[in-house]
Amino acid sequence: DAAGLPGPALKELNALDQLTEKTHKRDETRRFVWRDIQRANVLLKLEEFGEATRYAKYALLASQDINSITNIAIVTDIYGQLLKTRYKASRDVQELGDILRASPIILLE
């Protein structure tokens, strides 16, 4: 998150999205999943829990499509962090947990 500066990090991610908006192709899924994971982490630090959950969900679904255990583990960690926030009872966080539990790669205890 840019050395503890989530605000500037989010601005950089937004600028990068604008530059690559027209080049999004299926073969670039891994790169875009990683960006969604980074965005979810930054938004979590900014306490934008709804948006963080949304990007975590995007990353999770794409990670399942490409069978990325590492990314699924990272999203599982983000989910765990969301469960420690005031947003934990939200429908979005519950849905993220449901998707994780139904995943063919289960990392939740």
| Number of helices, where a helix is a run of at least 4 consecutive DSSP H or I residues | 5
> Runs with pLDDT <50, length 5+?
none
- Beta strand %: under 5%
Radius of gyration: 14 Å
Tell me roughly what share of residues is in helical segments: 55-70%
Distance between the termini: 28 Å
Q: Structural class of the secondary elements? A: mainly alpha
**Number of DSSP strand runs:** 0
Shape: globular
Describe, in plain words, how this protein is organized in 3D:
This protein is an all-alpha fold and 109 residues long. It contains five helices and no strands. It has helices at residues 6-20, 29-45, 49-65, 69-82, 91-102. Helix 1 (6-20) packs antiparallel against helix 2 and helix 2 runs parallel beside helix 4. It is globular and about 35 Å long. The mean pLDDT is 85.
Produce the secondary structure layout.
Elements: H1 6-20, H2 29-45, H3 49-65, H4 69-82, H5 91-102
Helix pairs in contact: 1-2, 2-3, 2-4, 3-4, 3-5, 4-5
Summarize the model shown.
The protein is an all-alpha fold. 69% of the residues lie in helices and 0% in strands.
